[in-house]
User: Which sequence fits this backbone?
């Protein structure tokens, strides 16, 4: 098995809808180690995080965080250690469009 460490996804959340930041490629597993959310505006906002197993439609059980406050001109770093399988989707939404950047770091594991 080969491990590839680094940035798994980056996104500027231009909408308040859930945005797929990282989808695990086929024949791959992944460990999401760190997620950084940065509020680039002078107003407080919120964020949501969800994981959709195998790309399933979103349901309430998929949320890891829901409407968590994110202070103005501030960032939040989450150390997660979440394991994902092929086709799992990591999604994030912001309370305000064009306010939040997301960076996901971790490891992809391939056979």
Assistant:
């Amino acid at each position: 098995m080969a491990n590839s460490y680094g940035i798994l996804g980056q996104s500027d959340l231009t909408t308040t809808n859930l945005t797929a930041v990282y989808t695990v490629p086929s024949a791959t597993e992944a460990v999401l180690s760190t997620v950084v959310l940065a509020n680039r505006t002078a107003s407080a906002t919120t964020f949501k995080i969800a994981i959709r197993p195998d790309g399933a439609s979103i349901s309430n059980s998929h949320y890891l965080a829901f409407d968590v406050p994110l202070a103005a001109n501030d960032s939040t770093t989450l150390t997660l250690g979440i394991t994902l399988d092929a086709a799992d989707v990591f999604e994030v939404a912001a309370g305000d469009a064009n306010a939040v950047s997301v960076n996901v770091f971790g490891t992809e594991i391939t056979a």
